[in-house]
């Protein structure tokens, strides 16, 4: 997420195509960033409460399938929180090319992170994960 945020900043400098004619008030973008952070923190608290790993690099260490809280609405609410943060950042930058880069983040996460995590979770939890996967969308 940090790399995409930096890339968005560079795009805003290289291609200054404004989203709004006037500079928007920073309140809404900062509120979006705060909401994204809150989503991430709520999910982290759930992982800690359930005593399972939060480390996306080691999903094989997962001990329980979490399907409550925000996980009843999205299989990947932490990544969704990242998208909300990036959207707030893009609005703060007031830059269309920067906002378009969010689609690249979503594609990257889908292809190179989420697919691998879901394969491992399917191996670990079998039918339980498949039922969860059919009932809860990947993003929203």
TrEMBL record:
It is found in: Endomembrane system. It comes from the Bacteria. GO terms for molecular function: methyltransferase activity. GO terms for biological process: methylation. The keyword Nucleotide-binding does not apply. One of its GO terms (cellular component) is endomembrane system. Pfam families: PEMT. The chain crosses the membrane at residues 30-48, 78-108. It is a multi-pass membrane protein. Keywords: Membrane, Methyltransferase, Transferase, Transmembrane, Transmembrane helix. Gene3D superfamilies: 1.20.120.1630. This is Protein-S-isoprenylcysteine O-methyltransferase Ste14. It comes from Nitrosomonas marina.
